[in-house]
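User: Structure tokens for both sequences below?

Assistant:
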Amino acid sequence: MSTAISSTTSTERDHDLVFDVRAITLRFGGVTSLDDVTLQMRRGEILAIIGPNGAGKTSLFNSLTGVYTPQEGEILVAARVGDQPRSVLGKKTHIINHLGVARTFQNIRLFPALTALENVKVGVETRQKSGPISAMLGLPWQRREERESTQTAYALLDRVGLAGRANELAGSLAYGEQRRLEIARALATDPGVILLDEPAAGTNPMEKRELAALIEQINAEGVSVLLIEHDMKLVMSVAHRIVVLNFGKRIAEGSPEQIQRDPAVVAAYLGTSEEEAEQELESHDQPELHVIDTSGMALGSDAAGPGSSEGSRS
């Protein structure tokens, strides 16, 4: 196992943690998707989860958000400042969302026949009190909430650079714009932490640069960011810390600089031994980024097709 991993101590758990994942194991029949995974996410950080295809990254996200329930271990969340840690195991996804956890997905899940503004308002209204009866009656407080919902949605669209697209159908937006719209809708739930699952998938280089700036802006505004991403240049440019999974196990943890130089990580991406990975690292002027980036693009895409190993195992 990589030397970049440090053991979990009681001191670390005393820190202000957003997620405290303790030795979780997730099985599907005879397949173990997550194997005794432990990690902590600190408040205010951008934490990236990387690994080859089938490593268990999406399984981890699904476990954190209530889609899956691990058979072993514990997951505690304290998404917003001042929250007390609470277990997410056995809780429904909408309950976890109300605890301050928002998420985007590998495959965009917008309402294509609604406008960009309406899509974001769907997120805003998940934390409002109005129901269908009050809407039909047109009660004063319901009308006030409607105005506030619209104002908040416009502000979020402006925040992600889509103010000029508010009244366009979501399905008509460019792919990169749809990615940013999905982030705006997630932010509309007022999260303390946002989980971004492959936000750069399918985007061009300019859109990736805009996305990196948006992630840093969101984080600077007080939202912790948990990121799954295969674009290593994006990961290395924004992440404060990186956790690496391979075949459901955590194999490394550290700063971007540490991870780039870790033979165990390079070996996982190349499918070689650590000794061969060390030789590969030594054979390049800038070996660490070169090896991980090219192999990551070749081997890893959690993009979910029916035959992909990440889709089936995680």
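Moving on to the next sequence.
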Amino acid sequence: MAELLLISQAHDDDDDEAALDAYSRTVIAVAERLTPSVGNLRVRGGGGSGVVITPDGFLLTSAHVVARARGGNASFADGRDLHFDVVGADPLSDLAVLRVADANLTAADLGDADSLRVGQLVVAIGNPNGFAGSVTAGVVSALGRSLPTRSGANVRLVDNVIQTDAALNPGNSGGALADGRGRVVGINTAVAGIGLGLAVPINAATRRIIGALMTDGRFRRAYLGIGGQQRALPPRIARSIARSGGIEVAQVVDDAPAARAGLRPGDLIVAVDGTPVETMSELQQLLVGERIGTTVTFTVARIDRIFELDVVPLELAA
């Protein structure tokens, strides 16, 4: 019996060691792959980390890392210390694009955060204070979080923020959050509390922002001039359109596009150009630059009737 117990214990120990080895090998492989692509950023009054996204010198970081800066220096694990210019920043997504003159950088592969699952292994890699390859590992602890951001008087929620228990060290903001294959699925942006970190996702929506920052130096958004919140539709309205919710207009800014079109507090927005909407985040995703100055048709429920209003959005001031 004692011999059987020893054999069983040895077998369990082997299984634990094999599992630990697999986990360690994954983290090591991700670190080795991404560390050359993550730089330490230094700007007047602060700094953080940045991720190389093209071999010819474009870097991605958090907008708050380079706030009010026009440039700075980026140092890499291979010892290079390079000047960078801020190409464009979008505080409302907390993303910024930088450019260095060196055309021989190691670019990271960008992944898709929409494919992440709660419990999945992720690795956070930064370059805080010049300590190259600061690596922590953990799991995705929650998805679909929102991160409030501000630019002047404008306030917005960044959607689908990734929450992870991979520790974020000071200076890791702007660094990479990677999946087990070494693909960057998020840009570390804030510490939410003890043992918690947040990252802006890399997905179709943020890729559009990154592309606009690279080419135009800014990301344009349409402006309506309303404040609202999700609300259940009255039963008769819900039955007539086979939907359960919409956006209740809580506030309409005087002389803003929504006010000029006749939108009122208490109205329920149920669709934009035929696309159903139930939350302010869904509405924000539709208010892209292409809609600025064009007629947008809102389907609105008011008391017991449904009708359409034509709104011409302006450009949201930076």
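User: Anything stand out in the second?

Assistant: The CA atoms of residues 250 and 308 lie 18 Å apart.
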